[in-house]
Structure formats: structure tokens, C-alpha cells
Amino acid sequence: MASNQILTVSQMQAAEQALVDAGETVSTLMERAGAGAADWIWRVAAGRAVTILCGPGNNGGDGYVIARVLAARGLTVRVIAPFSPKTPAARAAREAWGGEPVETAKGGVFVDCLFGSGLARALDQVLETRLCELAAAHDLCVAVDVPSGIDCDSGEVLNDTLPIYDLTIALGAWKFAHWMMPAMQLMGERRLVDIGVAFDWDAAQLAERPVLSPPEADAHKYSRGLLAVVGGEMPGAGVLAASAAMRGGAGYVKLYAGAEPGLVPPDLVVVHDGLDELLADERIAALLVGPGLGRSEEARARLAFVLGCDLPTVCDADALHLLTADMLEGRLSPLIVTPHAGELDALGHTFGSVGLDRVEQVSDLAEALEAVVVAKGPDTMLGAPGTPVVVMPPASAWLSTAGTGDVLAGLIASRLAVGMDSPLGIALEGCWLHREAARLAGPAFSAGDLLDHIPDAYGVLL
Ligand SMILES: NC(=O)C1=CN([C@@H]2O[C@H](COP(=O)(O)OP(=O)(O)OC[C@H]3O[C@@H](n4cnc5c(N)ncnc54)[C@H](O)[C@@H]3O)[C@@H](O)[C@H]2O)[C@H](O)CC1
Ligand SMILES: [K+]
């Protein structure tokens, strides 16, 4: 059965080799991959002609299988072959197709079987132009396995101009490029064809939607979880995070406002002084520190004090610029950090994770901090010590507005106060609530508008 695993090219090659060692051949795998892809193409073609651009490797081989299967189903199929097939399986697939390639074609569905996971460098100018012209000359574009011209492992786009596809059909397993920027922008809809690849415990995963629980019948505000949000110089961010947390499952949210917060919701308890007294409350289940904290010496001391309490804690925003290893010494409680790209770099510099690609950096930081790292952005990725990364499916691009990070931190902290899952599971719950709230909020929302959609997002996950 197809799984949610995300494989690197070398993991994919090892998986393919394991199947071959178990008695399959590359040709039977190609047959399965091509037939599965042809099923999807047949559906979207809806009777229209199909043009397949075949490259020299096994991705091209898949293309010849697709050509044969679709022609047998009665579609008009045109194959364009700038290269002759170079692998035994691709040669056999071309022979089995048995047709004559054409120079060019237009109209109907264009299928890119030029290169897959074997792409070694950017397409040359001639190929880039040919690919783009063919894509533009058709009504619908489909990429088989991955669009040609992207790096499967890093998600890098290697050419300046590449087509944007309507559908990408991943073969055997997801690759990072399907879910990572910038390549994921080219993919269109994504579908996975199962070719029998086994589950790999060392593989990254595409996050699955969690199931949340409603409160127990005998729940009270403390049993559901008391969260303290520790703010600072810019109190608005703390109010926003606390307001999200109130809707994320925690039974009680208190905000320690470092400065006068102005208008606050009537159901938010705001404490103005006595941080040590507040944090001495044994009923506190989790802490959030960072949104609006500031970066002064006072902020640094406050962060050190908060972390020294050794309670389950979420660190976000300014806290990520102030965080140092000594503040974490001796801590035993779970820690979740929620950096955006700039904060991830700042953490990387402090904790010595530089010069790595994003996947490595997230894993490395999770080990160094002994924390869950939520590297947020259009391709949010989560790392935890000793576990492969988990990648969130994309969320609404309207989330790219100020304050939505505070909402995310508040939601994760709220789930931490509820505390029903592992720290990684908790962080995923927060990310899914955020994603669903954004989906339900529709277009052009503000971070404040997002708050109104959290209860319904919760409902989706129950
Ligand atoms: N992994 C599996 O289980 C299966 C994968 N299948 C498909 O096979 C491709 C990967 O095939 P591979 O032959 O390794 O790579 P490509 O088809 O991508 O092409 C490699 C080929 O192209 C040359 N090359 C690389 N980059 C360039 C370039 N920029 N310009 C010109 N030439 C280039 C390189 O030297 C090689 O000759 C995978 O994606 C699936 O689609 C099968 O279905 C079987 C199961
Ligand atoms: K391709």
C-alpha cells in the first residue's frame, strides 16, 4: 500500500534494489509505475490526445509504457523522443510500444517523462525551450514522478524557466521536492502511484491529519491544561498568541504582559507583575515565551528564568534569537521551538548547524537542542531527536501575513498544555489546527481573523 513516506533519491534507489533482490525486475517496476501513471492520465485526458516527451533514462521508459497503455485504450498518443533510450528497461519499453516518435505536437495533454530522479544537472537551453514550448502548446500538463529540471532531494529548481504542471504523479514514494519550496510550486495536484516500495523507518514522512479529542465529561479548566504565556515589550503579539491558545484546547490561559497590552479579550486573564509568583503555580502545564518578548537584556533574563522553570515550553520569535545552550542545561521537560527561516538561521548560528540543507538543519537542531523544531513556512518541516523529519502538506498562502506565527505558537503551546501526545505529535496538532483555520478563513484574512476559525478547525480534527 502506498504510504506517506518521503524518500531521498538514494533511499529510493535502495528501495528499488530491495524489490529487485526480492525477485522483481526494473521492467516489472516500470510496468507498474507506467500503468499507474497511465490510469491518472487517462482520467484527466478525458478522450483528448496525449503527447509524451521521453528522456533517455527510466523516466523516459515510464513514458513508453504510458504510451502503449493509453494507445491500447484508444487514445491518440504522440511520443517525442529527443534521446534514444539508454537503459535496458527503457529500451524494452520502447520496443514494446513499437510506434514511431514525432517531431512535435500540440493540443490535448502534455506528459513530461524527460527526466525523473536521475536528473544530474540543469536542462540545457535547447531542452528547456522545447519543454516549455510543448507545455505551452497543450491544454493540460502532467509530470511523471517529478517535473524535469528540479532537484528531488533539496527541492531546488535548476532552470530559470520551467512549466507549471496541472498534475504530478509521484512514482513509488514521495520525494522531498514534491513538498518543498521552491519546486513544490510547479507540481499542481499531486498523486502517488504505489509500485510496492516497502515502508522505511528511516524515511521522512508527509504529516497525516491528527485526530483530537473533546474534553472529558468531568473536565475542568485545570484538567484541560493551564498555559502561561510570557510576553514582553510588544504586548500585542502575546495577546494574539494567548487568544489562539484559548481556542486550541487548553482550559485556562494566563498572559504575563511585560507592558500594558491595551485592549484584551475579557476572557483572557492578564497578569502584570509577579512573574515568579505566576510561574510558581504548580497547576501550570505549559509555557509559551517569545512573541513580543523583545531582545533586551531584560528579555534575555526573562527567557532564562522561564526556561529554568523546567516546564514543557514553546519558544518562538525573539526567544529564538536570545536562546543559548546554557539556558537549556539540566532541563528535562519537553521543548518546542517554532522558527521561521530567519530564526532557523539564527538558531543554526548559535547551535552550530550551518552549511546544511534544510532537512539536515532541522534534524541537526532537533538533536542539538533536544527539542522539537517546527521550521515554519510554506513548506513547514518538523524535526525531533532520533526521528526522521515530518513535512506538513502546504497550507493557505494567505498565511503570509504578520501575526500568524504568534497564532501558531499559541496553538502549539495550547496543545502542549493539553499534553495528550508526544512533543512531536503535539507540534503537529498545532500545525494542523493552524492549517485548517487558514483554509476555513478563505482569502485575505488577518492574524486576528484567523482566531475566529480555530473552533471550526478544531471541529474538523475531532
Ligand atoms: N525508482 C524506482 O523504483 C523506479 C523508477 N522508475 C523511473 O525511473 C526514474 C529514474 O530513472 P533514471 O534512469 O535513474 O533517471 P532519469 O530517467 O531521470 O534520467 C537519467 C538519464 O538522464 C541523463 N541526464 C541527467 N540529467 C540530464 C540533463 N540535465 N541533461 C541531459 N541528460 C541528463 C543521465 O545521464 C541518465 O542517462 C524515476 O524518476 C522513475 O520515473 C521506473 O519507473 C522504475 C521504478
Ligand atoms: K518527469
TrEMBL record:
This is Bifunctional NAD(P)H-hydrate repair enzyme. Gene3D superfamilies: 3.40.1190.20, YjeF N-terminal domain. It comes from Alteraurantiacibacter buctensis. One of its GO terms (molecular function) is metal ion binding. Homotetramer. Its EC number is 4.2.1.136, 5.1.99.6. The gene is nnrE. K(+) binds at residues 59, 112, 148. Belongs to the NnrE/AIBP family. In the N-terminal section; belongs to the NnrE/AIBP family. Residues 12-203 form the YjeF N-terminal domain. InterPro entries: Carbohydrate_kinase_pred_CS (IPR017953), CARKD (IPR000631), Nnr (IPR030677), Ribokinase-like (IPR029056), YjeF_N_dom (IPR004443), YjeF_N_dom_sf (IPR036652). Keywords: ATP-binding, Isomerase, Lyase, Metal-binding, Multifunctional enzyme, NAD, NADP, Nucleotide-binding, Potassium. The keyword Manganese does not apply. It catalyses: (6S)-NADHX + ADP = AMP + phosphate + NADH + H(+); (6R)-NADPHX = (6S)-NADPHX; (6R)-NADHX = (6S)-NADHX; (6S)-NADPHX + ADP = AMP + phosphate + NADPH + H(+).
